[in-house]
């Protein structure tokens, strides 16, 4: 089996696994087959990364026709890193779901849930690797239905309401993206990203108004899907009401797939030489800054622990768009923050879900003293939250440090104030959860030590995610250097 076909095989494997789910009678087999499929994909992406490191990035033709007529994948360093990240986080979340999914959905829908997860992650990988823009759109629509499905599958009134809101907003975003694709096709005559760039590089000045419209369509369309402020309105309801494993997947992976497509639109289709002539980066920088501040302010006023984390996601996506708005200097940091945030936010949602399942409480007021009953779970939550706040060594701090340096280098010193204010606001809503959980006699009264703690086997995937978070922080320089080499 040739190594260069592994990305395509991974997408096909997940889709094929999805089709098997309705045929499987026992849920434990559905869980085992799904985990095995993701394990195989994870292994193939590691092998592919080593192949790319030694041979360089490559285009992989799908079918009999070469580009620009045929469909192709581009497999580069960043794509391989994304493949490893997506499958690793999915494995950890699904491992957690083996023990806990029955708390969120009825037994007869468990196989359907794993069908949707396989389709969702498979479509995200298709978005990451595809070099054909319409093929990306097809994967977006497949993922759109699957991601809405893992929200409404809980089959409660609030889930259906949140899922419908998500579906409507996401379809609006998809429509804008499709319009952008149509405009690009009309001026380039191609759907292949490489050929689109070649044509645009020669005649973009002749279509400056159309390109301005196209950039606006992609920014708003993908901004809706990736929770760019103020287009995030669907996210708090969808993420807070979805099953815990769904919340973790939506926040840590789904949003990142759309951001990566946005990066490909900016730098692979248009290129840095073109986008600097348009105001798009300044708009993205402004919206990212607003998201960093206002997302955190909204989180402070939430009473539900999952809504706190959901609004924190809005703020953290703001950091990614802030980095993109800084231009080429911030691009590598945006990709690094995608990696760090994915593992950290997955850990936070899984911890929150464990606390809710063990106590039956969602409101922060009811979780006072939970540190005595669930010391390890809250400890993992607290450590993951330190990365969001920006404590040194952890990936959140690394991102903020490099963003500050990039702000100085671009002579935008005022932006450091945005980073500092956002970090302080992060502390305002994360620290009280741990403080009220561990301290205060009135909080600890009648609490049984470790009375509601999860078994070690259920905590293990969360522990691995937290350890991965530390690894990313400690090896940040090597990871950022690797990202930069892949962006050249």
Question: Can you summarize this structure?
Answer:
By secondary structure, the chain is mostly helical. The protein has 21 helices and two strands. The protein has a domain of 203 residues.
Structure write-up:
Belongs to the CPA3 antiporters (TC 2.A.63) subunit D family. Its main location: membrane. By secondary structure, the chain is an all-alpha fold. The protein has a domain of 203 residues. The protein is built from 21 helices and two strands. A two-stranded antiparallel ribbon has the order 1-2. Helix 12 runs antiparallel to helix 13. The longest helix is centred in the middle third of the chain and has 32 residues. The protein is globular.
Write the layout of secondary structure elements.
Blueprint: H1 6-20, H2 27-55, E1 58-62, E2 71-75, H3 77-100, H4 110-129, H5 133-152, H6 157-188, H7 193-203, H8 208-225, H9 235-241, H10 244-270, H11 272-275, H12 280-300, H13 305-325, H14 328-359, H15 370-373, H16 375-389, H17 395-409, H18 414-438, H19 441-444, H20 456-474, H21 476-487
Antiparallel strand pairs: 1-2
Give the number of DSSP strands.
2
The percent range for helix content is: over 70%
Poorly predicted runs of 5 or more residues: none
Please state the structural category. mainly alpha
What composes the largest sheet? 2 strands, antiparallel
Q: Hey, roughly how much beta strand do the residues contain?
A: under 5%
* DSSP helical segment count: 21
* Overall geometry: globular
SSE sequence, one letter per element: HHEEHHHHHHHHHHHHHHHHHHH
First-to-last CA distance: 29 Å
Can you list the strand order of the major beta sheet?
Answer: 1-2
Radius of gyration: 22 Å
Mean pLDDT: 87
């Amino acid at each position: 089996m040739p190594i260069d076909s592994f990305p395509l095989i991974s997408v096909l494997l997940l889709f094929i696994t999805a089709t098997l789910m309705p045929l499987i009678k026992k849920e434990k087999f559905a869980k085992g087959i799904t985990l095995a499929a993701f394990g195989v994909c994870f292994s193939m992406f590691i092998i592919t990364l080593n192949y790319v490191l030694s041979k360089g990035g490559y285009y992989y033709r799908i079918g009999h026709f070469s580009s620009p007529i045929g469909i192709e994948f581009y497999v580069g360093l960043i794509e391989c890193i994304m493949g490893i990240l997506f499958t690793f986080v999915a494995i950890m979340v699904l491992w957690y779901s083996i023990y806990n999914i029955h708390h969120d959905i009825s037994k007869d829908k468990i196989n359907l849930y794993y069908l949707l997860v396989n389709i969702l992650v498979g479509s995200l990988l298709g978005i990451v690797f595809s070099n054909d823009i319409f093929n990306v759109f097809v994967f977006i629509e497949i993922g759109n239905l699957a991601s809405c499905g893992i929200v409404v599958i809980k089959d409660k009134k609030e889930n259906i309401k949140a899922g419908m809101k998500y579906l409507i907003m996401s379809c609006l975003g998809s429509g804008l993206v499709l319009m952008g694709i149509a405009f690009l096709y009309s001026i380039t005559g191609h759907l292949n990203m490489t050929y689109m760039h070649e044509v645009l590089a020669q005649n973009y000045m002749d279509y400056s108004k159309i390109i301005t419209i196209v950039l606006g369509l992609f920014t708003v369309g993908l901004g809706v899907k990736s929770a760019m402020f103020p287009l995030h309105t669907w996210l708090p309801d969808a993420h807070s009401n979805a099953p815990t494993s769904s919340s973790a997947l939506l926040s840590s992976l789904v949003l990142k797939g759309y951001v990566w497509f946005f990066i490909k639109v900016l730098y692979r289709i248009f290129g840095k030489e073109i986008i600097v002539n348009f105001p798009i980066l300044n708009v993205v920088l402004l919206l990212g800054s607003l998201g960093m501040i206002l997302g955190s302010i909204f989180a402070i006023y939430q009473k539900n622990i999952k809504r706190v984390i959901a609004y924190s996601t809005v703020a953290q996506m703001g950091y990614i768009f802030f980095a993109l708005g800084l231009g080429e200097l911030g691009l590598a940091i945006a990709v690094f923050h995608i990696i760090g945030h994915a593992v950290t936010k997955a850990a936070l949602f899984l911890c929150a879900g464990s606390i809710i399942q063990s106590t039956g409480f969602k409101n922060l007021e009811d979780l006072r003293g939970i540190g005595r009953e669930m010391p390890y779970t809250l400890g993992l939550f607290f450590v993951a939250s330190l990365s969001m706040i920006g404590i040194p060594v952890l990936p959140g701090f690394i991102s903020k440090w490099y963003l500050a340096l990039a702000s100085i280098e671009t002579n935008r010193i005022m932006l450091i104030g945005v980073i500092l204010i956002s970090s302080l606001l992060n502390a305002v809503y994360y620290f009280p959860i741990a403080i009220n959980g561990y301290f205060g006699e009135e909080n600890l009264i009648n609490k049984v030590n470790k009375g509601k703690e999860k078994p070690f086997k259920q905590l293990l995937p969360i522990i691995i995610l937290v350890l991965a978070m530390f690894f990313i922080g400690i090896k940040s320089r090597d990871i950022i250097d690797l990202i930069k080499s892949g962006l050249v």
